[in-house]
Design goal:
194 residues; mainly alpha; Arc Repressor Mutant, subunit A; elongated
Length: 194
């Protein structure tokens, strides 16, 4: 057997890290963060406790890594202040991709939100989400301005409320028509663009 290349080793490390993150997310959402041990995570993931600590120095670091891992899966237009050449295409594709993400992994996203609600008052997580929320507000506002939507600032909050409500409904009832609700609002905003 030939030695593994650096690329193979890096891929294996990434796969193990993601396995630990996904396993921890599952256990944290089932039994709560405080009710889950690193040993339980390792056992369910089929890895050693030491390997978990190799990737994450503590359960708190693992928790923050979970939030970071899933927040990084959200389309990047939420986190940009640039104006767009085709804002109608950007908003359609971005929200289409985001909804597809929810539709293809509904249980995973349900677990993520269950975990999120456990830490709604945790200041370090609240601060991180607050910063991302500000970037999201600015990104959506810029898109709505580029689409010529009247009152883009207030429409941003209306759209976020519709989107977040649709996501919550979808999490609790996977047959909720999230695509129709969200993309219907996206099409409404795109109708202002000429």
């Amino acid at each position: 057997m030939s030695p593994r290349s650096k690329k193979d080793l890096d891929l294996l490390k990434q796969q193990r890290r993601e396995l630990i993150i996904e396993t921890a997310l599952s256990l944290f959402s089932e039994s709560s963060f405080s009710g889950t041990t690193i040993e339980q995570i390792a056992k369910k993931a089929g890895v050693s406790k030491g390997l978990v600590y190799t990737y994450f120095e503590s359960k708190d670091v693992l928790l923050h890594s979970i939030f970071e891992f899933y927040m990084n899966r959200i389309p990047s237009f939420f986190h940009t202040n640039t104006l767009y050449d085709s804002p109608d295409r950007v908003i359609r594709e971005s929200y289409g991709d985001l909804i597809r993400n929810f539709e293809t992994e509904p249980d995973l996203w349900s677990q993520y939100f269950v975990l999120s609600f456990q830490f709604i008052l945790d200041n370090s997580i609240k601060n991180r989400h607050s910063n991302q929320k500000e970037q999201t507000v600015q990104g959506i506002t810029n898109l709505l301005k580029a689409l010529n939507v009247p009152n883009p600032e207030s429409e941003t909050f209306r759209f976020m409320a519709i989107f977040e409500g649709a996501v919550l409904n979808f999490i609790y009832q996977h047959d909720f028509p999230i695509r129709e609700v969200v993309m219907g609002q996206v099409e409404y905003y795109c109708s202002f663009y000429s």
